[in-house]
Amino acid sequence: MSFWKRHPLLRRLLIALFFTAGVGLVVMGWSLTGLPAGLGWMLMGILSLLLSLLLYNLGF
User: Fold this and answer.
1) 3-state class of 9 per DSSP?
2) Measured CA distances, 2 to 7, 17, 18, 33, 51 (Å)
């Protein structure tokens, strides 16, 4: 866990990357309303958002 405390810039960049990708995937899946693929894109987006939250919490 001390790796994330020693490299805060890397952690911030990864959080920003996963957050942006997650929001993008959710919006893209939302545009595919009624299709099973839309649900898959939204679930991957939610997982990406949860990963960004995990990376945020690893610093503490």
Assistant:
1) helix
2) 9, 21, 21, 42, 18
pTM value is 0.87
Q: 11-28, pLDDT tens digit by residue?
A: 999 999 999 999 999 999
User: What's the distance, CA 6 to chain centroid?
Assistant: 22
Calculate the CA dihedral of residues 4, 7, 13, 17 and round it to 10 degrees: -30
Provide DSSP, 10-27. HHHHHHHHHHHHHHHHHH
Q: How far is the C-alpha of 27 from the C-alpha of 32, rounded, in Å? A: 9
